[in-house]
Amino acid sequence: MNSKVALVTGASSGIGAATAVKLNSLGYTVYAAARRVERMRDLAKAGITVLALDVTDDASMRACVDRIISLSGRIDVLVNNAGYGSYGAVEDVSINEARAQFEVNVFGAVRLIQLVLPHMRRSRAGTIVNITSMGGKIHTPLGAWYHGTKFALEAISDCLRMEVQPFGIDVVVVEPGGIRTEWAGIAADKLIEVSGNGAYAPQAQPMAESMVGAASRKRQSLPELVASTIAEAVKARRPKTRYAVGFGAKPMIFMRNLLSDRAFDGFMRMATGISGKPA
Description:
Blueprint: E1 5-9, H1 14-25, E2 29-34, H2 41-45, E3 49-52, H3 58-72, E4 77-80, H4 95-123, E5 126-131, H5 144-164, E6 169-176, H6 183-195, H7 201-212, H8 214-219, H9 223-235, E7 242-245, H10 249-258, H11 261-272
Parallel strand pairs: 1-2, 1-4, 2-3, 4-5, 5-6, 6-7
Helix pairs in contact: 1-9, 3-4, 4-5, 6-7
């Protein structure tokens, strides 16, 4: 098989689905993986191989990678896109939920990297694309555990990039801003469930509205924009180490670099409609 082989996780919707379609259109042999296989019927109809994958289950991850190697003999591109946003006050979020957030957003991604790297090293080539977020560079109210995972994946990607460079492998970080996917709705629902009542409710209500309100939804970028950026990165002979893309990504990262910690805190309170005083 001469075409390059790509594994895209979290491919049942949003950025993952759009990326699978985009790479398939460019001639890649694409394996789209997610827990919800039934939601990938359209991908299968397009000639994309769909695989069941749970990034919290080591056996599932091993089986997925082994299946690709058995069918195609190689993996040239790994797009670590699986993830979700767990929002809520640090005081309110259970440690079990915090662990679950890290299991999906960090440990699942890193475990897949561990499983794929021997095959890439053997080929002395490959590209690992880790989807973080502008949330890996900035902070928002009530998003500590989510941002913690994205900051962690950013740092891991930097260290990994240096480790695998001698083997001809590239590591790319893609930092989406506001994208029109299911992510915001799920994060907002979790936020209200966890902190919608009690001491943090005056912050949770406006924060959730800032995520899913009509004004925010209208400005969000389409997932195809991120997919095109990922395609640009994996096709490049020497890709950038980071791509900030989508609504608000570049301006927000710029503002974080420009402002002091407390000034950025104030900016985020203003942007999300949260008062800096207790109710």
